[in-house]
């Protein structure tokens, strides 16, 4: 008979396996725009699978990379580009400060 504490907890994720996760992470951080676009497409598919339980950090990172890809491609200019970068950065900073403040309040 197994004890409850020794059982592994299963966590459902959107990616197929660790290899897919590693590939998307590597492509996302590469300097090749086509690889980054592929990674962004995979992240969009993951997000569709998970909906409300998708990791916010992955989503925020994808937003920042999406800004870079569009910036390099020349798709957006001026105010649109500024707004896109601003939104992605504010969202990222809010995530960081939310995690920091919740960790700070959890101290005994």
UniProtKB/TrEMBL annotation:
Pfam families: Las1
Gene Ontology CC: one annotated term: preribosome, large subunit precursor
Superkingdom of origin organism: Eukaryota
One GO-annotated biological process of the protein: maturation of LSU-rRNA
Alphabetized GO MF terms: endonuclease activity
Name of protein: LAS1 like ribosome biogenesis factor
Species this protein is from: Maylandia zebra
